Amino acid sequence: MIFKGVCTALVTPFKKDKSIDFLALEKLIKNQLEAKVGAILILGTTGESATIDYYERAEIIRFARKLIKKPTKFIVGTGANDTNLAIKNCSQAKMLGADAVLCVTPFYNKSTQNGLVEYYKKIDSQNIPFLVYNVPSRTGLNVLPDTYTKLVTLKNFAGIKEANGNIEHILEVFDKLDSKKIYCGNDNLSLIFHMLGASGVISVTSNAYPKEVAYAWKNVNTHKKYAKKFYQINKDLFVEPNPIPIKYLLSRQGLIKNALREPLTEIEESNKKLLNGDIKIL
């Protein structure tokens, strides 16, 4: 188990010229550490990893590693649709001090299930704990429960971030795997995963509300009390592709500038009202 409770899938803050805003990044990380989250993930989907080059990745990883101290775990997103690039990213993360890596399944190429096993075998060879990230809505590829049973035998397999929203799939995954190896990948299903015994959530919402999300994961009963409050926020944060809404909300909180790298664009005016209302919900 890499962490327990909440891991924040951190945004990557940019300046107006779209360069990395390290002052804002420091503020975000310290905000998470004060909330005592279990882990911080950088360079995931929420961190706009697709538009951050290899050298920028190194700068961000080094910077974050200096700030993130135990007991908070430091996780880096390293997956790719090119196995060699994924291996290169894993090697970089390991060299620069990551505690673990999160590896999304290959996207666009759409490998077979056997291809997935081979992909993760190559990642396993890098000798750093890794989490499998299953998000078929983005990748067009789903990790079948039976495939997970093959991946658990790998030496450095540390768990899964399950973002398939199909309930039957989720239930079968919990039937096949040790629940301690499962992390929720969708904020709107966080309570369901908690009730089924998952170890935690890799959250977008906790960018803006780390203390509240961390508190909810103290136990299932606490989580139930927060569920209604979280419902609207979790829904609104995905009214447009992530991380467009969360970056707008964080900018309204004064934590970052509302800057994204193309092809992502700022949130539509019609959706700003939703997020403006969410600021006062919690």
Features of this protein?
282 residues, alpha/beta, eight-stranded parallel β-barrel, TIM Barrel, 12 helices
Shape: globular
- Main sheet makeup: 8 strands, parallel, barrel
One letter per element, helices H and strands E, the order comes to EHEHEHEHEHHEHEHEHHHH
Question: How many independent structural domains?
Answer: 1
**Strand percentage, roughly?**
5-15%
> Treating each run of at least 4 consecutive H or I residues as one helix, how many helices?
12
The CATH homology group name: Aldolase class I
Structural class: alpha/beta
Strand order of the largest sheet: 1-2-3-4-5-6-7-8
What is the radius of gyration computed over CA atoms, rounded to a whole number of angstroms? Answer: 17 Å
- Do you know the CATH topology? TIM Barrel
Q: Low-confidence parts, pLDDT < 50 over ≥5 residues? A: none
CATH architecture: Alpha-Beta Barrel
Intertermini distance: 30 Å
Range of helix content: 40-55%
CATH class: Alpha Beta
Average of per-residue pLDDT values = 96
Using DSSP, what is the number of strands? Answer: 8
SSE order and pairing:
Elements: E1 5-9, H1 22-34, E2 39-42, H2 54-67, E3 73-77, H3 83-95, E4 100-104, H4 113-124, E5 130-134, H5 136-139, H6 145-151, E6 157-162, H7 167-176, E7 182-184, H8 190-196, E8 200-203, H9 210-216, H10 220-236, H11 244-252, H12 269-278
Parallel strand pairs: 1-2, 1-8, 2-3, 3-4, 4-5, 5-6, 6-7, 7-8
Helix pairs in contact: 1-2, 6-7, 11-12
